[in-house]
Amino acid sequence: MAFRHPNFIDEQLASLEQQNLYRRLRIVSVNGPMATVNGKQAIHLCSNDYLGLSQNKRVVEKTTRALRQVSQCSSRLIAGNDPAILELEALLASHRKTESALVYPTGYAANLGVITALADKNTAIFSDELNHASIIDACRLSGATVKIFKHNDSDHLENLLTQSSGRKIIVTEGVFSMDGDSANLREISKATEKHDAITVVDDAHGDFVMGPEFSGAPADAGVNVDVHISSMSKGLGCFGGYVAASDKIRELLINTSRQFIYTSALPDHLCVSAIAAIPIAKKGHLQKKLYRNISHFKKNMTGLGFSLGNSSSQIIPILVGDEKKSVLLSQTLLEEGVFAQAVRYPTVKKGSARLRVSLTAMHTLKHIDIALSCFEQAGKKLQII
Ligand code: PMP
Fold first, then answer.
1. Does 317 sit behind a cis peptide bond, omega within 30 degrees of 0 on the bond before it?
2. Hey, how many other C-beta atoms are within 10 angstroms of the C-beta on 220?
3. From the CB of residue 16, how many other CB atoms can be counted at a distance below 10 Å?
């Protein structure tokens, strides 16, 4: 028996299908650099586990040993402030070279929590046009005036800043999640000083991957920023979000950030995972493998005639444009044993659909060579190259 539902739901779903924008969940089990996707074994090219730490033996063992309770079942300010969270925050602050850090349940919550706490209706937020959905949502929720600057365009940013008065917040990703290019943090840092603004950098994809001691995009660019936001479910291979900033900003967040106050604490065993993963991520041997993989894949894909945009990281868009064709490319690759998801509107602009490939330190050159050969066949078949 079908459940009763209003007509607009059918209409909306039919409209998405008609525009080639319908999204379907697939059943995915991950095993190292491979995944079984709807029953089909494939080389996994869309994981954010860039260093493979989610499957690292030592990290998994320490997490398992720490499992005394599934969750603290409480918010931080009530009874959820386990010592493991504080130990993790000290490590994260030292990692980002800030006075302090504050853990949130996810990176999404961290963006919402920080931006809504720092901005109010008298604030102007300057946001890069390619910023992640969680930043966009945070800006909207804050009630601030939001001014979107063209992607990585410091002249446009400067113009917008000059026209504004009052509290100013500049927000950007460190490494852009769908294009893999880096923000122009040196220019942003100059603009911040000139206009007495606050800079917030969501470095979910640069964290633990780039920069001196792998402390992320601001360190890589050699600049200090006011607020670092990150997710621990990418380079660190764990779970949760965090903010690294001054002691006073941390105090303000504890006192006013609704996404911090009114939600349950990150479970302590997940803090233990991150505590175990950080020293491994700091060694550098995994990044070395990752960088080797990036350079091998990019050189060969460009040689085959694929367009990879301005990626300077492990996130490599295979630009297709047409929504239907990008889904077809993803399906054809999966049939050949390569798992690379198509990314379409509204995650990216209409007409700029792509496959978002992300490489990890778990891939061997053999995995990458097999993937390259599948890309070549599928690209020719669909007349993309
Ligand atoms: N910021 C960026 C740039 C992201 O790509 C993501 C996740 N895709 C998030 C924030 C959210 O992080 P989390 O998955 O920890 O909620």
1. no
2. 20
3. 12
Dist CA 116 CA 74 (whole Å): 22
What spacing in Å lies between the alpha carbon of 204 and ligand 1's midpoint?
6
How many residues appear in the chain? 385
Q: 134 CB less than 6 Å from ligand 1?
A: yes
Sort 156 into a burial class: Cβ within 10 Å, 0-12 / 13-18 / 19+. Answer: middle
Distances, alpha carbon 201 to alpha carbons 134, 169, 204, 237, in Å:
13, 11, 9, 20
DSSP 28-43: EEEETTEEEETTEEEE
Question: Which residues of the chain carry a pLDDT beneath 70?
Answer: 1
Alpha-carbon radius of gyration of the chain: 21
Inter-residue contact 373 to 379 (CB < 8 Å): no
Q: 19: how many CB neighbours lie within 10 A of its CB?
A: 13
359 CB neighbour count, 10 Å cutoff: 27
pLDDT at residue number 357: 98
What is the rounded CA–CA span in Å between residue 31 and residue 25? 19
- Contact (Cβ atoms closer than 8 angstroms) between residue 371 and residue 45: yes
What is the tens place of the pLDDT at every residue in 120-175? 999 999 999 999 999 999 999 999 999 999 999 999 999 999 999 999 999 999 99
Closest residue CA from atom 13 of ligand 1: 107
**Does residue 257 have its Cβ closer than 6 Å to ligand 1?**
no
Structural domains for the chain: 19-50+284-381 (3.90.1150.10), 58-281 (3.40.640.10)
CA distance 35 to 48: 13
Q: Judge if the beta carbon of residue 231 lies within 6 A of ligand 1.
A: yes
Q: What is the phi/psi pair of residue 345, to 5°? A: -55, 140
| Predicted local distance difference test score (pLDDT) of residue 1 | 66
Q: Are 88 and 95 in contact (CB under 8 A)?
A: no
Task: Dump the DSSP string for 290-328.
Answer: HHHHHHHHHHHHHHHT---TT--SSEEEEEEE-HHHHHH
Angstrom CA distances, 41 to 26, 36, 245, 339, stand at 13, 4, 43, 9
